[in-house]
Amino acid sequence: MSPDPAAVLARAEAAYLGLALGDALGATVEFMTPREIAHHHGVHREIGGGGWLRLAPGQVTDDTGMALALGQAILAHDGRIEALACARAFDAWMRARPVDIGNTVRRNLIRFRNTGEPEAPASDHDAGNGAAMRVLPVALATFGRPEAEVRAACRAQAHVTHHNAMSDAACEFLALSVQDFLRGDSLQQVFRQRIRPLVAAHPAYAFRDRPRRENPSGWVVETMQAVLQAVVDVGGFEHCLVDVVNRGGDADTTGAIAGMLAGALYGREALPARWLKALDPAVREACMAQARGLIAQPSLPAREAASQACRAPAREAASQACRAPAREAETQTGTSADLVPGKS
Ligand SMILES: [Mg+2]
Fold it and tell me: Please, which pLDDT band fits residue 313 given cuts at 50, 70 and 90?
């Protein structure tokens, strides 16, 4: 049974807003230890800016910025994810002097400027979380496409700056898990379908029966361990994000990645109103507009005909219907208690 398009769109918006909310929430405590966070904030649970980047309240960082740059490039190319277009978009983003930028991203974008070659050479040094944090637009634009195509699209965007097997595994896992949640799959299903196979293929990602991952670094493995512990073991959107950012370390990125997953899982109604109000309005609108645009790309073979109809000038009403903002998604619940026990 194909999923209800309005529900899919609402979850897609929640995933994009979740990414930005997690980024904005976590940025305040990026590079702090849990002890420092507790000293200064008690439990950090409000979007208020500050942090080492001295952000305005509601401001986001490179995680959301690069995702929006990628999403714009995908929309400008009718839903295609091409390495050169991604590289040009990231390069333009860097030229606009973003508030922060990862070392691996900077190094490989300078390499692109010098060589014109969009794909970085494979490197053990590229196992940072910078490709995973921005992968959401690929998940939305390839929703409904065959898994091999989704994986190839993830790598095309990732290899511009991060050409590394562990980064690839995280990017592909995130895109496919988001797509499962968009279809309405439960956390328990995604645990079986995606999380367990990820850890089986890459045991470094094991996160259960392990100490709580605190101070996660920018290494994609530590980032994902913190995210997976929070998403799997802490139920609810807000609790999940509060848990992950209070671990400190690369908190804006753990917040962003947990936010995209938890947004897709729990839906629009689970996003705290006070956080949405605090988020930079331009970012909030851009996330929602891109979610609508990307999910409307003619990517589903079964939707091709409908999509063509949506694009025909004579079918303006249908087009409006295709692009109309969705109703609120039903909030989906899922906690660790529902999960199949066992090591991941
Ligand atoms: Mg950041």
Answer: very low
Quick: pLDDT tens for 271-294. Answer: 999 999 999 999 999 999 999 999
Number of helices and strands in the chain (H, E): 17, 0
Ligand 1 centre and the CA of 100: distance in Å? 7
55 forms bridges with which residues in the sheet? 50
Closest CA to 232 of 329, 249, 224: 224
Instruction: Of 180, 143, 182, 175, give the one whose Cα is nearest residue 158.
Output: 175
What does the DSSP 8-state code read for residue 100? -
Q: Ligand 1 centroid to 254 CA: how many Å?
A: 9
- Classify residue 121 by its DSSP letter: P
Measured in angstroms, how far is the CA atom of residue 86 from the centroid of ligand 1? 19
Residue type, 246: N
Ligand 1 center–CA 211 separation, angstroms: 25
The tokens for 214 are 């605190």
SS3 52: coil
User: Do 240 and 336 touch, CB atoms closer than 8 A?
Assistant: no
- Percent helix, strand and coil across the chain, each to the nearest 5: 65, 0, 35
pTM beyond cutoff 0.85? yes
